[in-house]
Amino acid sequence: MNGNSLIKKLFEKFYFNFYLFLLIFTPLLFVTNTGELFEFPKTFFIYYAALLCLMVYVIDMISNKTWISRPSLTVLFYVAVFILTTITSMHFYTSLWGYYTRFNDGLMSVLAFFALYYVAKNKLTSTDISRLSNAILLPIIPVALYGIAQHFGLFEGRVVFGEKSDRVYSTFGQPNWLAQYLVMLLPVVLYKTFYAIKPWFWYTILILGYTCLWFTFSMSGFAGFGASFAIGLFYLFRQLGFKRVRVKIGFLLIYILMLAVLFPGILEKRLYDIRQDLFGMSVSPVYASSENLNANPSKYKLSDAGFIRKYAWVGTWNLIKSSSKNFILGTGPETYPYSFQPFRPVELNYSSEWSYLFNKPHNYYLEIWAESGLLGLVAYGILFFKVSKNQTIDKRLGLVGFAITNIFGWPVVATTLVFWFWLIEVEEEQNA
After folding, report:
1. pLDDT tens digits, one per residue of 348-407
2. Which of 215, 293, 297 is nearest to 259 (CA)?
3. CA distances (Å), 398 to each of 18, 52, 155, 302, 393, in order?
4. Which of 146, 210, 294, 309 has fewest C-beta within 10 Å?
5. How far apart are CA 335 and CA 362, in angstroms?
6. Where is the O-antigen ligase-related domain (predicted)?
């Protein structure tokens, strides 16, 4: 083997091992010495990883005179719209870097993911991508084990939030973020229990992952998983027949029921909140009084999440339609905390979050429209359609769950990384 062949081989090994480390390590990363312990380090890890990967790729391209393939027009359109809405932003630097403490979903993070996508598109082989497609599921094991341990308080006194938690967050910092990650990947694991080698290994991961998902007590997570699981069962029954799936699915359904009975957790309180949202909430006129009139956050047993989202969405819609510029181009990526305040409905003063600064509308589609306009929403919709259109059924189910959780939340670093990797998979299949 001559010198050039050896160097080329080293570069090939670097790319696979780099993406393997990136996909496995990113969901597990958190620190204990920053203001935001979970999303902030993940975001900057993506920044540094993208920079390193791009530098190696440029050196490789120069030394080996590598042929460069063009990114898809869909991806270029999405990035171009993001750049345009950043340029027209009400606060350029926030749109460039992202809102402070997390920084994900600013232009820099989009460019970082684009760089990782572009290098992978040019340097990863179909065999590499197939192996990475399995590896991306492995972090479920430590993530789920840590989350389950949190529920039972096994790490009390040894980690930052080690006290026994009503809702677990594992390495993600927030139960809904953890739930979104699991909802996105568990349908893929479900299919591997029927189609992959060593199905019981994947079945164990499925049980661990669902147990952790249950302990998040995330309503958006349950909605996303429930929809994808129901559709998945329909396809499995149609493809394999009832006899081939009944044992594994039957045991899984029994296990799900047992978890609900043995560990109801905060669901009773959540159902109380929903009942209050539907039947018990009314805002009465306010009169002068000698009594101390304060918003009463203890009125609900846990959180009036439905009421809060309702009026956050109303205010966001008022922001969107407040001007033609906002409607078409938005106020700029990540500027929602600044732009929402003039449109904040007074009804939110009667919620448990009456004193909060709203930095998200808790609906990713409204968030895109408010920050990047209708143009940005269309660009994201086209990109999402591209990822899901030519995808395998198991990953389509994951995307269904992902899309549902985004109705009530927003993507985080780990789920965004999965989304971009699945985009790479789709384009590799199309080019094969």
Report:
1. 998 888 888 899 999 999 999 999 999 999 999 999 999 998 899 999 999 999 999 999
2. 215
3. 24, 30, 31, 29, 9
4. 294
5. 14
6. 206-380
Does the CA dihedral 257-263-268-273 come out positive or negative? negative
Q: Is residue 354 part of a domain?
A: no
Average pLDDT over residues 239-259: 94
Mean pLDDT of 108-129: 96
State the Cα–Cα distance between residues 296 and 291, nearest whole angstrom: 13
pTM score, whole prediction? 0.91
Distance CA 60, CA 64 (A): 6
Task: Give the integer Cα–Cα distance in Å for 119 and 69.
Answer: 10
- Its domain, for residue 198, covers 3-268+364-431
The pLDDT of 152-159, averaged and rounded, is 63
- Residue 362 CB: number of other CB atoms within 10 A? 20
Question: In this structure, is residue 335 part of a structural domain?
Answer: no
Share of the chain above pLDDT 90, in %: 74
| pLDDT of 165 | 61
The contacts of residue 379 (CB under 8 Å, 6+ apart) are 77, 78, 81, 82, 372
Residue 315 lies in a domain: no
Amino acid present at 83: I
Tell me whether residue 8 is in a domain: yes
Helix, strand, coil shares of the chain as percentages rounded to 5?
A: 70, 0, 30
Separation between Cα atoms, residue 401 and residue 396, nearest integer Å: 9
Q: Name the residue among 19, 413, 415 with its Cα closest to residue 186.
A: 415
pLDDT, averaged across the chain = 89
Q: Give the confidence band of 116 by pLDDT, cuts at 50, 70, 90.
A: very high
CA dihedral 171, 176, 182, 184 (to 10 degrees): -130
Number of domains in the chain: 1
Evaluate if residue 297 carries a pLDDT over 50.
no
Least Cα distance to 120 among 9, 17, 8 occurs for 17
User: Which contacts qualify for 70-77: CB closer than 8 Å, 24 or more apart?
Assistant: 71/114, 71/117, 71/118, 71/121, 72/386, 72/427, 74/382, 74/383, 74/386, 75/114, 75/117, 75/383, 75/423, 77/379, 77/382
49 versus 62: the higher-pLDDT residue is 49
Whole-number Cα distances in Å, 380 to 17, 173, 335, 375: 30, 26, 18, 9
